[in-house]
Amino acid sequence: xxxxxxxxxxxxxxxxxxxxxxxxxxxxxxxxxxxxxxxxxxxxxxxxxxxxxxxxxxxxxxxxxxxxxxxxxxxxxxxxxxxxxxxxxxxxxxxxxxxxxxxxxxxxxxxxxxxxxxxxxxxxxxxxxxxxxxxxxxxxxxxxxxxxxxxxxxxxxxxx
Length: 160
Description:
The chain is mainly β and about 160 residues long. Helix content is about 10%, strand content about 35%.
């Protein structure tokens, strides 16, 4: 009982201390976010020197790789992307902790005008009867494109 009460108190304290991720505004001279992930407009960030991936407030994103075979698949909206070379992008998204929130696969639909990226995650079936804390993590996944990105719009498949 004491453990459960402690988890609830810590969760409430963490929730009270943080700002919602969408309330963050780009800082002059720093990495900036452009576009709108809610519509068809491209969503991108300006990477910092050295190509490190950071959220707007400077936190590091956890790099993940898709691991097929998850159960209870659902789509996950993504926040932004960074072009990597001519035909790859790093897609940033908010998710929970593993094994309850594991990236299963990424669907990519390309045409001459736009690239639609849809992320799918689920829970690891090998982790039975596991409880995961409700904690938002900024994650990033590398997505390889069939053709160079060029000037095509990149669109979140959950919102198109």
